[in-house]
């Protein structure tokens, strides 16, 4: 017989729940009688190896909630039902029915969620529990006005009003500064650190008709449909706050077929409401009537539209495709596993609103570089230095391992690179010349060029093979020597026998030093590793 309609279910529900309750009671009574009798026999035969359940344990085992989840068309199968804020949950069957085990702690709200619906909840006072799900609107409303994330008590929906800690984390992140980042704008318009024109690389001068590609990721909230400019120098309003809260939580899906070719805003399917509010999020029990559970927000695919991209024919951003080939993906780890790892010190994501206390392991951080850039680099790069006497020389072996990384190291913007610097020193601290081994090329910068070491980078060159050049002038990637996740990279060098100690450094830079100097930027070198190793000498 086909499933009954929603109205039929309501008329029949009282009889059904009463019968179901008696059936469950008798079943539990008979099972309990059997277990108690068996236990008594075991206790008689085996002393204290078995004991009957306590009163509290028996009560806890018997507590359940039953009910149904429906929509306007009838029962909803496969809806996730849980006690709000707790881990225990269940799925509805084909008739929309559920039976939810409880503890003796009491229940304030029971929630239900499913893809394509708003999350709904109910207080457990009715018999049976009846949860109506409401389908999402079908169309994205392009006339929607973005919510400003900045705290402002006079505006009810401003994100920071309720989510102060999350706002503070996001506000310090690269996402919040993507539209106004000084180095980005300097490359974009050919200016120095203080905005003076005529300094170094200049995208606008080289590709005036192609500048809109930047806005798709750096300012995705621009009202393109309304004719707003995609010139990053004139971005205003909420769009000037970069990759902001409301934009991320309006993403319904990702255009998987266009990843790498359709960038940022144009690679996402947004769902903005004509009336009221609508937010997609990773929690499935936020039942304010305007929230939607989105598994996508916990998947690497969610990040792909901005972190994978071929621009002007060059594979500039490759983090997502690197993750696809990584051990992390095979282990089931996503971008969010590392970059949004819970801090453990947040137990309520909305203490300024109607948030509840939660397990801190369920609340994601929004810093995106937990502990900061330097800490993440130090945690992801393992360095081992070995010194061994070989006749009249000293062999130095340096091994780098990209540990627990979900992509190559470094990743992101194509000019990011690592420098391995090895310096043998005598007893007075004077630098010695390496007998044999690789030396750093000119791209390492004036203070490091010629020293022993290696560059781990993607280096772009133009038609004549000259480089580095900006990606919009590049003809090809000359080489890619970055670290592979989970793999070691070993460098061998022969040092003079009089070497007393060896200094080994691993440095990270966002941009080539020639660019930094031409742009008059502050030095952006981050020290990942810096250690002296004493040469052990044998004595008769």
Number of helical elements? 14
Count of structural domains: 3
Uncertain residue ranges: 1-61
* Cα-to-Cα separation, first versus last residue: 95 Å
**What share of the residues does DSSP label as strand, in percent?**
15-25%
Q: Tell me the Rg in angstroms.
A: 30 Å
Give the overall shape, derived from the CA principal axes: globular
Helix content: 10-25%
Give the rounded overall mean pLDDT: 88
Q: What do you see in this structure?
A:
A hairpin with a 2-residue loop joins strand 1 and strand 2. It is built from 14 helices and 25 strands. By secondary structure, it is an alpha+beta fold. The strands form 9 sheets. Strands 1, 2, 5 and 9 form a 4-stranded mixed β-sheet that branches. It folds into 3 domains: 130 residues, Immunoglobulin-like (Sandwich); 204 residues, no CATH class; 158 residues, Immunoglobulin-like, CATH 2.60.40. The N terminus is likely disordered.
Quick structural overview:
The chain has 540 residues and is of the alpha+beta class.
Keywords:
about 550 residues; alpha+beta; Immunoglobulin-like; four-stranded mixed sheet; 25 strands; about 20% helix
Secondary structure: elements and pairs:
Layout: H1 6-46, H2 55-62, E1 64-71, E2 74-75, E3 80-83, E4 89-91, E5 97-101, E6 110-113, E7 117-118, E8 120-122, E9 129-132, E10 134-135, H3 159-162, H4 164-171, H5 182-189, H6 203-206, H7 212-218, H8 245-248, E11 251-254, E12 268-270, E13 279-281, E14 291-293, H9 304-307, E15 308-311, E16 314-318, H10 319-324, H11 327-330, H12 335-339, H13 373-380, E17 381-390, E18 393-402, E19 417-425, E20 452-456, E21 458-461, E22 476-480, E23 488-496, E24 501-509, H14 513-519, E25 526-534
Parallel strand pairs: 1-9, 13-14
Antiparallel strand pairs: 1-2, 1-5, 3-4, 3-6, 6-8, 7-10, 11-12, 15-16, 17-18, 18-23, 19-20, 19-24, 21-22, 24-25
């Amino acid at each position: 017989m086909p499933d009954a309609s929603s109205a039929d279910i309501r008329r029949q529900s009282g009889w059904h729940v009463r019968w179901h309750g008696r059936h469950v009671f008798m079943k539990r009574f008979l099972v309990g009688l059997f277990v108690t009798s068996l236990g008594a026999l075991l206790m008689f035969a085996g002393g204290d190896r078995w004991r009957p359940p306590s009163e509290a344990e028996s009560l806890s085992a018997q507590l359940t909630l039953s009910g149904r989840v429906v929509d306007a068309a009838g029962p909803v199968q496969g809806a996730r039902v849980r006690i709000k804020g707790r881990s225990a949950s269940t799925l509805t069957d084909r008739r929309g029915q559920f039976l939810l085990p409880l503890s003796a702690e009491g229940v304030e709200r029971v929630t239900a969620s499913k893809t394509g619906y708003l999350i709904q909840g109910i207080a457990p006072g009715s018999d049976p529990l009846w949860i109506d799900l409401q389908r999402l609107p079908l169309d994205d409303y392009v006339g929607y006005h973005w919510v400003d994330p900045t705290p402002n008590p006079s505006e009810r929906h401003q994100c920071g009003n309720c989510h102060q800690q999350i706002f503070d984390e996001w506000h310090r992140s690269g996402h919040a500064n993507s539209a106004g980042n000084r180095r980005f704008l300097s490359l974009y318009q050919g200016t120095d650190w203080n905005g003076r024109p005529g300094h170094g690389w200049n995208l606008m001068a080289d590709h005036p008709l192609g500048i809109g590609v930047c806005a798709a990721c750096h300012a995705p909230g621009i009202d393109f449909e309304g004719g707003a400019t995609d010139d990053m120098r004139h971005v205003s309003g909420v769009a000037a706050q970069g990759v902001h809260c409301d934009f991320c939580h309006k993403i319904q899906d990702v255009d998987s077929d266009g990843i790498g070719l359709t960038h940022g805003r144009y690679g996402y399917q947004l769902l903005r409401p004509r009336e009221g509010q609508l937010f997609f999020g990773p929690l499935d029990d936020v039942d304010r009537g305007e929230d939607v559970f989105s598994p996508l927000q916990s998947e690497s695919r969610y990040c792909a539209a901005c972190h994978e991209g071929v621009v002007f024919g060059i594979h500039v951003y490759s983090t997502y495709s690197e993750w696809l080939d990584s051990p992390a993906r095979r282990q089931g780890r996503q971008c969010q596993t590392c970059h949004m790892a819970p801090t453990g010190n947040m137990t309520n994501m909305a203490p300024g609103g109607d948030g509840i206390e939660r397990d801190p392991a369920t609340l994601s951080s929004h810093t995106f570089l937990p502990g900061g850039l330097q800490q993440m680099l130090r945690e992801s790069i393992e360095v081992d230095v070995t010194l061994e006497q070989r006749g009249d020389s000293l062999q130095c072996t340096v091994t780098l391992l990209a540990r627990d990384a979900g992509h190559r190291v470094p990743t992101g913007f194509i000019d990011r690179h690592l420098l391995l610097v090895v310096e043998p020193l005598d007893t007075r601290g004077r630098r010695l010349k390496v007998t044999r081994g690789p030396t750093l090329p000119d791209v390492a910068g004036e203070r490091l060029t010629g020293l022993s070491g290696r560059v781990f980078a993607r280096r772009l060159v133009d038609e004549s093979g000259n480089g580095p050049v900006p990606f919009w002038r590049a003809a090809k990637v000359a080489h890619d020597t970055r670290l592979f996740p989970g793999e070691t990279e070993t460098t061998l060098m022969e040092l003079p026998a009089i070497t007393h100690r060896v200094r080994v450094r691993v440095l990270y830079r966002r941009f080539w030093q020639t660019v930094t100097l031409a742009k008059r930027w502050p030095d952006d070198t981050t020290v990942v590793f810096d250690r002296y190793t004493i040469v052990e000498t044998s004595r008769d």
